[in-house]
Design brief:
Blueprint (H helix, E strand, L loop, with lengths): L2 E9 L5 H11 L18 H6 L6 E7 L2 E7 L7 H7 L5 E7 L6 H12 L3 E7 L8 H14 L4 H4 L3 E5 L4 E3 L10 H10 L14 E10 L3 E10 L1 E3 L3 E5 L5 E6 L2 E6 L2 E4 L2 E3 L3 E5 L9 E3 L17 E6 L15 H14 L4 E4 L5 E6 L2 H13 L4 E3 L3 E2 L2 E3 L2 E14 L3 H9 L5 E9 L2 E9 H4 L2 H8 L5 E11 L11 E4 L3 E2 L2 H7 L3 E3 L6 E2 L3 E6 L5 E3 L29 H7 L4 E6 L2 E6 L4 H11 L1
Parallel strand pairs: 1-3, 1-4, 4-5, 5-6, 28-33
Antiparallel strand pairs: 2-3, 6-7, 8-9, 8-17, 9-16, 10-15, 11-12, 11-17, 13-14, 13-16, 18-20, 18-21, 18-22, 19-20, 21-34, 23-24, 24-26, 24-27, 25-26, 28-32, 29-31, 30-32, 32-35, 34-35
Helix pairs in contact: 9-14
Amino acid sequence: MMELRNIAIIAHVDHGKTTLVDELLKQSGAFRDGQQVAERALDSNDLERERGITILAKATSVEWKGTRINIVDTPGHADFGGEVERILSMVDGVVLLVDAAEGPMPQTKFVTSKALALGLRPIVVLNKVDKPDAEPDRALDECFDLFANLGADDDQLDFPALYASGRSGWADAELDGPRENLHALLDLVVEHVPAPRQADAGGAPFRMLATTLGADPFIGRILTGRIESGSVSAGDTVKALSRNGTRLEQFRVTKVLAFRGLSQVAIERGSAGDIVTLAGMSRATVADTICAPEVETPLPAQPIDPPTITVTFGINDSPLAGRDGKKVQSRVIRERLLKEAESNVAIHVSETPGGDAFEVAGRGELQMGVLIENMRREGFELSVSRPQVLFRHENGQRLEPVEEVTIDVDDEFSGAVIEKLTGTRRGELAEMKPAGAGKTRIVAHVPSRGLIGYHGEFLTDTRGTGVLNRVFHDWAPHKGPIPGRRAGVLISMENGTSVAYAIFNLEDRGRFFIGAQEPVYQGMIIGEHSRDNDLEVNPLKGKKLTNVRASGSDEAVRLTPPVRMSLEEAIAYVDNDELVEVTPNAIRLRKRFLDPHERKRQARAAS
């Protein structure tokens, strides 16, 4: 048998992780000469390519000097941390990739704490050392401080470090090395990462913990995981156990697949330590144990951090419903959400008391935005509420999630940022230091409630130059009321198609979210009011025509370009009595449609 090494690559968003994996595949001979390979080959999802982030963890493998190295590319954003928490149970070592200019960032800290808690020994790679603002020595010191703060033991603190440029395809032990290739990194992985535990030395039965769920159009449901003990071949009869030991099903393995380069190939037999994919099950899912029939005890599954926000998904009941999408019924939406919750253990789905809407709990706005974006591309129409923070109650005290916010901002804007975070949004300043090149790094602990809808304000306050990163920090006592959006909205009072003349005459009332010749309906939010109250306006009102002409009266109308919100911006913008209407071709905002009795009840409550 070939020697095995299983590693995960950990990095913050945009620190060059997927590009480095591309170069490892090329230099290890995973591609044949002249083979056309797309850039960022592991980011196969359309959304991943568009946004430049890794959303789903993916495995690949390379052969190096007689050793097979299984590499897992993990997501870089904490909203998708549920993927990382499961994946770390499959590997025996981690490569921590750090931008030499930025140093360790919040998401790096989040995932590294999970890896260190499992006893994994890290390899630190300082990437992008050829950038003009790179400070590799400072970044290396920050990595050591980070490990020490996270409670690393002496073996983990004695980590090897390499200097690299993933885009240029080189890594060296010294900063002024030859800068030719990535052989030093591959050699270090083979030398530093321990081989998988061979638990089948005494003839132990087959056991495997399922960590990712997928579907193949030809072989159906598939589960991927690392074989902890024994071996498995196509045709073997195995069973699935839930986390608490309940037997779910017994099935025959129809295929055993292993990662070879970018593809999966069928193999005759999978052995202990290898990462394989099995087919043939109908009910088994993530965190279940696939094992031989005689095994009675499931493998311990890594605990998943609980969700911190919840969003309500419902059917689209606006007058424009059903014009774009084909999947509009609550039954179809329910099936899709339950399917998502099955493969992504960081998401929880529950039905509201009426049964016509669904509460989806997750890690953050980005995770929810990606789920909704995938659904609209699949032809769904939805209405989505404003995110609500989940609270805990312990010892009679109400606790709320607090996030660690790390901000890099030009010195001139730091005052405005600190005032917003520590004032109205109830945050606490933890650290503030110069970051070089006229920038300041601010670290603050802010309630999750205070960060909903803040990103747009932050970009305005910093003229688009600031960078904000956030990650779950801890649960803390409730911080008291936090004011919501200050501005009111402009609401359409008619159904029809918007008219340029009407919008032109209403522009002094605020900024608009729609342009001319767009469908509108009664209750639809078409703009932001310049004051703090809501205002109903008529965007259909055309110019009164007469048979008298006057000089200058028929000049062309010039409209200010409308503000077009992205999906995440729209979800964060709406207030508690508003919804986001999502269709394959449009994102609209609207007031909740209430029946007359509910409207009267709310009016009485407000008075």
